Amino acid sequence: MTPNIDSNGTGGLDPVARLLAIEDIRRLRAQYWRFVDTKQWPAFGRLFAPDAHFLDHATGFECDGSGEIESKIATVLQPAMSVHHGHHAEIDFDDESHARGIWAMYDYLRFPAGEVTPENPYAGASVHGYGHYVDQYIRLDGRWLFQTVDLYRLYIEALTPASTPYPALFQVPEGATV
């Protein structure tokens, strides 16, 4: 489908319908972050169109379809503590059923210790991420849903805890006074 994009991103919607749709899309994006941070995976999965696509460009983490998006993201983030913040939405409409959005974002993720795997890519690390979500939305059965989610990160800072054992000469002998 070739979108009918007008020059000002209104998609031909009247101003009130456009504002109501913007509010619905803002709520959709807010629920995305809240459901991830509170680990509400079935509700999270229902935010996506059946044929939705998700791609984190920094890691190459990719999913297709609402079910796979739900399960793969749950697998990675269930054991992690996460906090997501989104700001400064830019939302434009192609028509009454298709829209695009760009959101500035920050996230803090704290992953459990363990071996680095595709399911635990930042094992033991605390990650601060800064960037943008670039979304496409579709209106199905009267509800706005994510059609595509592209996550672009301007900067990622991953801090991995580390320690080293102290040599025996640092130990105070049992019974010694200091």
What can you see in these coordinates?
- By secondary structure, the chain is α+β, with helices and mostly antiparallel strands.
- The protein has one domain: Nuclear Transport Factor 2, Chain: A (Roll).
- It has helices spanning 15-37, 41-45, 66-77, and strands at residues 48-56, 61-64, 81-95, 98-110, 126-140, 143-159.
- The chain has a 6-stranded mixed β-sheet.
- A hairpin with a 4-residue loop joins strand 1 (48-56) and strand 2.
Explain briefly what this protein structure is:
The protein is α+β, with helices and mostly antiparallel strands and 178 residues long. It is built from three helices and six strands.
Total DSSP helices: 3
Radius of gyration: 21 Å
The H/E string reads: HHEEHEEEE
Largest sheet: 6 strands, mixed
Number of domains: 1
Strand neighbour order, sheet with most strands: 2-1-6-5-4-3
Mean pLDDT: 91
Name given to the CATH architecture: Roll
Q: Would you tell me which CATH topology applies?
A: Nuclear Transport Factor 2, Chain: A
Decide which structural class fits the backbone.
alpha+beta
Large-scale geometry? elongated
